[in-house]
Protein: Mitochondrial 2-oxodicarboxylate carrier
Amino acid sequence: KEVMMLIQWLTDELWGQIYIVHVFPDILFQAYIFTLELLRHLFFTFEQYKKLLGYASLPPGVAFAVAGLGSGLTEAVVVNPFEVVKVTLQTNRNAFTEQPSSFVQARQIIKTDGLGFQGLNKGLTATLGRHGVFNMVYFGFYFNVKNILPVNKDPNLEFLRKFGIGLVSGTIASIINIPFDVAKSRIQGPQPVPGEIKYRTCFKTMATVYKEEGFLALYKGLVPKIMRLGPGGAVMLLVYEYVYAWLQDTVDHK
Structure:
């Protein structure tokens, strides 16, 4: 028994080293890719909502959060069909060479289940919650805290200040929105019993998971999510800040 425990410990340690050396850097790289992919449409949408809310005379702190919510909901409507196709392909147990292309898979989903909530827009409510809540907390926390904490004259310290706030923003937003993420995965993924839909709607799915698996089941996958969206969120906000400032300086000089 003690030998088996030792072997298990060594195995865990080995996997831990592999994770630190190989997987963790890959997670950081994926966070960087995630930043580049979302930067254009996410912040463009955020800025448009922020301009619209300027006419509503809302307090700046509330306006940032509401603009973030609006950008997240808009983003969710756009990306949800792609999420359905992605999850369907990821849960396909056939060999990689036997799997259909994304276009063929999307066409098959539309042909079988249509464009509605059981087809290409399956899990839309959960996706709306996931993106809406995340962006509301993410943008609201970042811009409100950034305006409270004093600015550092040292550029390096100022960079660290913004990075730290962005990291905390992404982490808190991930913690708050992950129950929606779990519900989305259950709804869009394969059902426990083939031919029987167990996970149908967002909040009913959350209630079912809580009842059958406990509260912590709603936070499955939290650690890798934080490791991806914590640094990824910080990088994305930093890129936004510095690119936005550079564009403003460029326009002013012209």
The chain is about 80% helix and 0% strand. The CA atoms of residues 44 and 216 lie 35 Å apart.
